[in-house]
Each structure stands twice: as structure tokens, then as C-alpha cells.
Amino acid sequence: MKIYNHRIELIIDQPSQQAKSKAPLNLKKQLADAGIPVEAITKKSVKLPKNKRPLSKAMPGTINEKLYVKTGIRDVEMNPWDVAHDASKANWCTNRFY
């Protein structure tokens, strides 16, 4: 049974090209400009399961950090897919959503 009226959360791959850029990523401002209020942004690095880890030690066993964005929009107000598409229209549209 699905429970409704929860805040929409976006899981976003952190952009790799931003590390080379001199300007820091201001995700909260970019989402606010797109009309999406943000409550919290957290970072988590994801570890691969043992059967998917690389065989050589030269390659890291972790994936890029993911940004977990908790929005101020409830799922009864707007479809979560519509929020993801609106967020992708912001300046950092090269990121992937999960």
C-alpha cells in the first residue's frame, strides 16, 4: 500500500565536470530559480556490493557521491517525475536522476 502526502526527494549524481570548474555548485539556488523549494541536501557515497567490485585494486570500489535533495513539494501537489524534469531544466541538466 502506497502512503501519500510525503515530501518529494531527488537522488542526483554529483556532476564530475564541476570538480574542474572554479565556481562551486550552488544547487539550492539553481533549484529555487527553477521553482523547486529545497529543505535539505545531503551527500552519500555509495559502495558497490562485493560481487560487483572490480578485481584490480587500482579501481575504486565506490561510485560517485550522490546528492539526496529533500524538496518542499509534497507528492499530492505535484508528480515526482514532473519535479525531476523541472529540476533537470535547471543549469545542471547533465546529471542523472534515480
Total number of distinct structural domains: 1
Q: Low-confidence runs (pLDDT<50, min 5 residues)?
A: none
- Distance from N terminus to C terminus (CA atoms, Å) equals 21 Å
Oligomer designation? single chain
Q: Look at the helices and sheets and give the structural class.
A: alpha+beta
Instruction: Please provide the ordered H/E string of secondary-structure elements.
Output: EHEEH
Architecture, according to CATH? Answer: 2-Layer Sandwich
Summed up, the helix count is 2
Q: State the name of the first-level CATH class.
A: Alpha Beta
Largest sheet: 3 strands, antiparallel
Strand content: 15-25%
Q: What is Rg?
A: 16 Å
Tell me, briefly, the overall form.
elongated
Estimate percent helicity. 10-25%
Number of strands: 3
- State the CATH topology: Alpha-Beta Plaits
| Lateral arrangement of strands in the main beta sheet | 1-3-2
> Overall mean pLDDT score?
76
